[in-house]
Specification:
By secondary structure, the protein is an alpha+beta fold. The strands form 3 sheets. Strands 1, 2, 3, 4, 7, 8, 9, 10, 13, 14, 15 and 16 form a 12-stranded antiparallel beta sheet that branches. A two-stranded antiparallel ribbon has the order 5-6. A hairpin with a 4-residue loop joins strand 3 and strand 4. 24% of the residues lie in helices and 34% in strands. This is DUF4747 family protein.
């Protein structure tokens, strides 16, 4: 999965007109009197500073002229890897059980090596960042590393710069801007409603979900859904059991499975747009090129990547660079971001 972020510092005057790409390039060009940072891998190691002793190695990093592209590796101090030795032995596991098993043990990395717990391949182009992450690597660790690279190691950015990589960036985007919709989730905000339950002579005050438009704010609309899920008897019992401070929350999660038709695509997108515009419920719309959550658009998309060999946890460096640049160009061409 390719993730998108945008560099959006609170005080842009501290940048002196420089983009994130330019600052990364300048940081890597800094010299210690003998060589530039590009040639000093030990000086590109960032200590996360947590109790796990995690460190991030900026391993391969390249100036692509139009962008800066790199490979981050997440390692952990005194890390152990579980290993199953494929040599069977018979052992007594209890007074009643003697079993033949393989030996399960833990091993440290060989001397001069580190176990890798996560990877991130990242591309900085202008103020845009696209990245692919694996395993324990997180977007915040990518942000922390770049913050350290610019402010501390390279010292090319003002220490007071608020370094943010924004995921939620465009409140004006609609469902049509994130490609074909694949998933629609509506979670209502709870608001007390006085309702009359069918077959009851008294009213109950409960909090209900406001889901598809404002109709779901009424419990009278929610009760049929509850009955359809649990049956009449269980639904009535559940409503009866509610205390004065309790409420029912209704969440709708809709997917279209199977071979899609053009008609269903258009209808699903139309419904999603209407929901995002009109309801005050919490709406999450997922498409092939991103996600809209609470009115904010989050861009991401899937891309094929070459592996060095079948089953590998690594990606081919040059191929990832090409694919991330392809995603950037496509997002710009489709009007999802501005170059």
């Amino acid at each position: 999965m390719v993730h998108y972020r945008r560099f959006t510092p609170a005080d842009t005057t501290l940048l002196k007109g420089k983009s994130l790409e330019v600052l990364c390039r300048e940081a890597l060009n800094t010299e210690n009197g003998a060589s530039k940072l590009w040639a000093r891998p030990d000086d590109r190691i960032f200590d996360v500073g947590d109790s796990d002793g995690r460190k991030i190695f900026l391993n391969k990093v390249a100036d692509l002229s139009s962008a800066v592209f790199g490979e981050m590796c997440l390692a952990q101090e005194k890390d152990l890897q579980a290993l199953l030795k494929m040599e069977a032995s018979e052992i007594e596991l209890s007074d009643l059980t003697t079993a033949t098993v393989y030996d399960l043990n833990e091993s440290e990395a060989p001397a001069g090596s580190q176990f890798i717990r996560g990877l991130a391949y990242w591309l900085a182009i202008g103020d845009h960042v696209l990245f692919v992450k694996t395993h324990s690597m997180t977007p915040d660790l990518v942000r922390q590393y770049l913050d350290w690279l610019l402010k501390v190691r390279g010292a090319v950015a003002d220490p007071g710069l608020s370094f943010e990589l924004n995921a939620e960036f465009d409140k004006t985007m609609t469902a049509g801007d994130i490609g074909e919709i694949r998933n629609l989730r509506v979670r209502g905000k709870s608001a007390p409603q006085v309702i009359t339950v069918e077959h009851e002579t008294e009213t109950k005050e409960v909090s209900t979900s406001r889901a598809v438009k404002d109709k779901f704010a009424q419990m009278a609309q929610a009760v049929p859904m509850i009955r359809a899920l649990f049956g009449d008897k269980e639904a009535e019992s559940l409503i009866e059991s509610l205390g004065p401070e309790e409420y029912l929350a209704v969440e709708a999660h809709v997917k279209v499975r199977g071979r899609r038709t053009e008609e269903s695509r258009k209808k699903f997108q139309s419904i999603a747009n209407d929901l995002a515009d009109e309801t005050d419920a919490q709406v999450q719309i997922e498409g092939k090129d991103g996600q809209i959550r609470d009115g904010d658009a989050i861009l991401r998309t899937r891309m094929p990547f070459h592996l060095p060999h079948e089953g590998s946890n690594l990606l081919e460096f040059d191929n990832v660079a090409d694919q991330l640049q392809e995603v950037y160009s496509r997002f710009v061409k489709d009007g999802k971001i501005k170059a």
